[in-house]
Amino acid sequence: MNKRKVNEDEILDALPFLKGIEQAGIRELQRFGIFSLIPKNQFITMEGDSCQFFSFVLSGKIKVYKTAENGREITLYRLEKGQSCILTASCILSNKKFPAISFSEEAVGVISIPSPLFLEWVGKYDFWRNYVFSLLSERLSAIISVVEEIAFRNVDIRLAQHLINITNVNKDEIKTTHQLIAGDIGTSREVVSRLLKDFEEEGILILSRGSIKIIDYPSLNAKSKKV
Predict the structure, then answer these.
(1) Can you list the pairs that 48-53 forms with residues at least 24 positions away whose Cβ atoms lie under 8 Å?
(2) pLDDT tens track of the chain, all 227 residues?
(3) Which domains does the chain have, with CATH numbers?
């Protein structure tokens, strides 16, 4: 892993939210921030590790995921240029261990600051505090969506059953919205949209604005009975 100091242009290019903030914050990030280049296909943080640094991605892509006891891998989110890890922020704020695994899917460039400095800045700088709260808010919704899919992992069956219930062989076009379906089967619109797209790619239906056209009723029926 190659390390060096960072300059202001690199910082502002990757982190546009810093433009216009007090120069003291930029200077501290330059002073304490360390640039690291992480090769492709490297484990960065393992579950149970201490969070000693908080990092911003300058380039490349990082996958953050969990591995279930049965070996199933569950991707929580990916980090790209200008983004940072909500789980790392949460661990530093709560003094907990990292609860997942982070892995470089591409060669990754990051700027890292020590955890004590992260905590100091939360109390010292408004821009930093606002950034951390924004990060927690934005990423939390993504994680909730993933957790919901895991908790309701048979939601594809319930969706297929619901589509069958509101149509029949002689009336294959359903006038509805993803939001209405989500409310009917007790999940989120995002989950419904993702599953309907899967069904479309399987050739079961065609999606259009405000309607769903069933084109392979036998396959939809089989999916509704999947064990």
Answers:
(1) 48/97, 48/98, 49/97, 49/98, 50/97, 50/98, 51/88, 51/91, 51/92, 51/97, 51/98, 51/115, 52/114, 52/115, 53/88, 53/112, 53/113, 53/114, 53/115
(2) 556 666 677 777 777 777 777 677 778 888 888 889 999 999 999 999 999 999 999 999 999 988 866 666 777 888 999 899 999 999 999 999 999 999 999 999 999 999 999 999 988 888 889 889 888 888 777 777 767 666 666 888 889 988 998 886 557 788 889 988 987 887 788 889 999 999 999 999 999 998 999 999 999 999 888 65
(3) 2-151 (2.60.120.10), 155-224 (1.10.10.10)
